[in-house]
Model the fold of this input.
Amino acid sequence: MIVGVPKEIYPGERRVALTPVVVPMLAKAGLEVAIEAGAGTEAGYPDAQYQDKGAKVLPDRAAVFAQCDIIVQVLCYGANDKNGANDLGLMRRGQLLVGFMRPLGSAETVQQLAQTGVTAFAVELMPRTTRAQSMDALSSMASIAGYKAVLIVANTLPRIFPMLTTAAGTITPSRVLVIGAGVAGLQAIATAKRLGAVISAYDVRPAAKEQVQSLGARFVELPLETQDAQDARGYAKAQDEAFYAKQRELLGRVVAESDAVITTAVVPGKKAPVLVTADMVKGMAPGSVILDLAAERGGNCELTKPGETVVQHGVTLIGTINLAAGVPHHASQTYARNLTSFLVNLVKDGKVRPAESDDIIRDTLLTQNGEVVNARVRESLGMPALAVVSG
Ligand code: NAD
Done:
């Protein structure tokens, strides 16, 4: 079987799905690799490096889709809501597609994918089990985004992060608040800590407290009932509006005392909760910065403009999306390893293993034979359950 890597086409996307180093690992599993010419260039992986490792270079996108059995991408149609639809006409029945697809985003999009006949695997649906950890692309990308978020904030803030004692006096350290201490939030805390900031963090999941403290940050205790805040997969559960209103009220003071706020709070399949209101932004000192990592999902700050940086009430609001694309070399390196682990588990002796045989394959399988076959996705998008054919 041939695994094909088209060049990413989402505007500003510089990552690539596979890097040269994984080509021999896939070859060992009986998988050849073919890339579109220039696919890895922007991530720092020239065509020649792929060829040295035994991959083929194909002249254009159409050739990759036509000649390969498995197409791997970073942003497939769905996750690429700008020009990803261009690929629908290139896909064919029975071809495998693996990548980010935003499967809980819209019923129309996943149905369009299904109608092409592709067998699509969405990496967002990866189970959070020990065995799937090496394939967990959401975590790899979140970690990189959390790191990059801090660098952008540090670069935007009119202050420095560390405390400095100089002959010209003492500079107090910047105060950074991280709301949402999941994978991205924890990496943001660790990065801001290395730069010398004083960090506070908050999360609805009680389990986050210990992780925050172990990184040397202060956990913000809010008198809120949060016992039921975590689902079986380790994700936050959606709360009602009364809960979010109370949360905003309690967070107000902490936000006002912070020089920078990084928000990462999301709930799978739901719009991100608004945790920082316009009034809270008004209460911050001029020159403060808010970076909203949830911008793509609607934003945690009421004034965030997804994809843009705006200044409101003297506060810079950064709504940059797709931050991991800003660190394309290492983001591609980790993503390629995630995909390689996934593919090696998926294909045995030149054949795709049946979904029933493995929870990783079953959970990530989104479309097959023209249907959206993932029960969790169907339920989340309000699609009727598929009839079970018996006998
Ligand atoms: P995520 O990206 O879905 O959400 C980011 C964070 O926002 C989460 O910590 C969530 O609790 C928080 N959040 C949601 N609503 C909030 C609110 N109203 N206020 C404050 N915070 C809110 O989550 P994630 O980063 O992907 O991971 C969540 C957890 O899963 C983490 O504890 C992580 O360590 C764990 N995890 C486990 C595995 C594994 O077992 N293999 C893999 C990855 C992550």
